[in-house]
Amino acid sequence: MIRDRYRTISAPVEGTYRELASKFIARAFPIGDEAEFKRLAAAFGNEHPSSRHVCYAWILGTNGDHHRANDDGEPSGTAGLPILRRIRSLDLTYCGVAVVRYFGGTLLGKPGLIHAYGEAARLALEAAEILERVVMERWSLRCGYDRFDGVKAEVLACGGRLVDPVFAVDCTATIELPLGQGAMLRPKWELLSVDVEPINS
Description:
By secondary structure, the protein is of the alpha+beta class.
C-alpha cells in the first residue's frame, strides 16, 4: 500500500559519540536520491581526512523500500546496519546518515562498534527536526485563459501548486497535487474542457 505521507528530517544535523578514546561523528541529511547522498557524504568525509572510516546508511522511497548500508572497511554488519536501524526506528525516509570514526587506540570489538555507530547515528537524528510531508503527484494541465484562475484556485485549495505556467495560445503548466486528488478533480475539469494528464515521475 502506498502511503500518502512520509517522515523525513528538515536539515543536516550532527551528533558525536565517544567510546574508549575513539570518536564517532555522525551527520544526518535529508536527501532526494542516492546521487545527492553520495555527494553530501563525500563532502562530509573530506571534512575529516584523518578519520579511519566513513560508514553510512540511507533510505529512500515513500514507503522506505529503497535502502543501502555500507561498513567502509569495518567488520561486516558493525557500522552500516546499526546506522540503518536508527533511521528505521524513527520511520524516516529520504534520509541518510554518514559516520566518520577517529580511532582512539583501543579496539572496541564487534559489539562495541555496533553500539558506537548506532549511538552516533541516534544522537544526530535526535538533534533533527522531523517533518511529515505529503506525497505529491504530478499532472500536465492545458486550458483556456477563462478556466485558468478557477483551476489554479482549486489546486491551491487542496494543498497543491502550479509549476512553470506558460501563457501562449492556451495556458499550460505542471501541477502538483496531494496523492489521489488529481483523479478526483480530473472528471470535473474534463467537463470544463480542461485537459489534464498524469505525469510519470
